[in-house]
Specification:
With 280 residues, this protein is of the alpha/beta class. 20% of the residues lie in helices and 26% in strands. It has a seven-stranded mixed beta sheet with strand order 8-5-4-3-2-1-18. A seven-stranded mixed beta sheet has the order 9-10-13-14-15-16-17, covered by helices on one side. A four-stranded antiparallel beta sheet has the order 7-6-11-12, with no helix packed on it.
């Protein structure tokens, strides 16, 4: 299995553009696929720089319905109209972020996907779990075991002019099977990385061998003492799993550094253009 980050928030050593967004290119025995496509066509520019031919991709997994994971889909679809694009049907809803300061009137900013994506003929709108084949499958969380991450509080879904808390039913998670090994790939873990792992182990009876995911712990301001405790507690819980974790994007470097002190070699950060070396 080969896994390469095509774009994320921080610069690596490859000279690839680094912007707020996420995309991974993955090669398996049967597939060449993308998980998300970043915020723009810069993802494709990075792929070219890395020597990756996106015309060979046969599947795209959109992890959830936000622009920073979907902005490159329309230009990609022009380049490669044959690749199936899998997304939850709820990913087409209207999603917003409240950019206001604490106590101020809401300032809603649209962060959903381009409306043109759902009209693409190669899009597969799915409702819940999906088995793609014996290598790839997707699952959702219908009932969370714990609460959402603190950073989700400002994220909303708009319906009929009413803004309500986004419950992230548009987020799904990819399982890749390689022999006896299992890799779990999530975009931002908006449902909470601990909730996702609990659901995974409930379904499959054991933890995945590797997890690749943002943890959505980033803030534009400093973390509060309570938020730092939540980050620390998350890291402590993750050490209970016999799993190696690769994170990036919405985790943010300050939260990563807190978690790294607790998790040590069990946690690594993936920068833009980096390749993940799974030691299976």
């Amino acid at each position: 299995m080969r896994i390469i980050n095509l774009i994320e928030n921080t610069e690596g050593e490859t000279g690839c553009a680094a912007v707020h967004g996420l995309s991974f290119y993955i090669e398996t025995a049967k597939h060449k696929l993308l998980v998300d496509l970043g915020p723009s066509a810069e993802t494709m520019t990075n792929a070219e720089k890395l020597g990756i031919d996106l015309k060979q991709v046969d599947a795209v997994i959109l992890s959830h319905g936000h622009y920073d994971h979907s902005g490159g889909i329309l230009p990609f679809a022009t380049l490669n109209p044959g690749a199936a694009i899998y997304m939850q049907k709820t990913a087409t809803a209207a999603y917003y972020a409240d950019d206001s300061e604490a106590g101020a009137a809401p300032q809603y900013r649209y962060i959903g996907i381009d409306e043109g994506i759902a009209a693409l003929p190669q899009v597969r709108l799915i409702d819940g779990d999906c088995i793609i084949d014996d290598e790839l499958s997707l699952f959702v969380i219908k009932e969370r075991a714990g609460r959402l991450p603190f950073s989700n509080a400002r994220l909303k879904r708009e319906t009929g002019g009413v803004y309500q808390q986004d419950e992230f039913d548009h987020e799904h998670f990819l399982i890749i099977k390689e022999g006896s090994k299992r890799v779990l790939v999530s975009g931002c873990a908006h449902n909470g990385i601990l909730n996702i792992l609990k659901e995974y182990t409930r379904r499959f009876g054991a933890a995945p061998d590797a997890v690749i995911s943002g943890f959505h712990l980033m803030k534009k301001t400093n973390h509060t003492a309570g938020e730092i405790r939540e980050i620390e507690n998350t890291a402590k819980e993750l050490t209970r799993y016999d799993t190696v974790f690769y994170t990036c994007h919405c985790t943010g470097l300050p939260a990563f550094e807190i978690m790294k002190r607790i998790m040590g070699s069990q946690l690594e950060y993936v920068h833009s253009g980096d390749e993940i070396a799974l030691n299976f």
